[in-house]
Amino acid sequence: xxxxxxxxxxxxxxxxxxxxxxxxxxxxxxxxxxxxxxxxxxxxxxxxxxxxxxxxxxxxxxxxxxxxxxxxxxxxxxxxxxxxxxxxxxxxxxxxxxxxxxxxxxxxxxxxxxxxxxx
Length: 119
Description:
This protein has helices at 4-14, 19-26, 30-37, 45-55, 59-62, 78-98, 104-118. The chain is mainly α. The protein folds into 2 domains: 4-62, 434 Repressor (Amino-terminal Domain), CATH 1.10.260; 78-118, no CATH class.
């Protein structure tokens, strides 16, 4: 069974972010984050989008669907965003030549690059 609260808690703990810090990033209280994680409250759509952006995951992932592979460019400059888009396009061209989709590993690399640029 799908558990959004457990997923949010897991993503938060993986990244070593406190409930308070996540609340600040999402502009909600620590108590609200606690309620999301306990499934006492469901985040509104805009907050879900922000959660996806903060954790660099797709909305599909947050909705319990199979990960389709996305890279969030939230918080990047226009030049950094263009660099990430060029990398994604480069991967896609290479993979298209072999008839493959981007791998989870490729998305992971792009996510790490994006996270470093956003610091």
